[in-house]
Amino acid sequence: MTAVRKHSVSIRGHRTSISLETPFFQELERIAAERGQALAAVVAEIDHDRPDDTNLSSALRLFVLEQVKQRVGLSRD
Question: Is the dihedral of CA 51, 57, 60, 62 positive or negative?
Fold first, then answer.
């Protein structure tokens, strides 16, 4: 199993730290590159859209999971 690692990112002018396992972080980087966006821009978008009761790291994991599901045709959307 992969350990959780802290990563720093600047969103909307302030630094924040996110705790993600390496595979989730790598997939998030891949998604950002595929979209032609900076990682910080993708994280800021997810941060803006997440429910108030969901922490950012959890929201990022759920976003990555949904993106992977869509890519392999498992998404309900």
Answer: negative
Q: Is the pTM of this model over 0.70?
A: yes
Q: What pLDDT was estimated at residue 60?
A: 97
The closest of 26, 19, 31 to 55, measured between CA atoms, is 19
Q: Are 23 and 3 in contact (CB under 8 A)?
A: no
How many helices (H) and strands (E) in the chain? 3, 2
Answer whether 21's CB lies under 8 Å from 5's CB: yes
| Cα–Cα nearest to 68, from 27, 9, 19, 29 | 27
Quote the CA–CA distance of 34 and 55 in Å, as a whole number: 25
Which pLDDT tens digit goes with each residue over 35-53?
A: 999 999 999 999 999 999 9
Residues ≥6 apart with Cβ < 8 Å to 32 = 38, 39, 41, 42
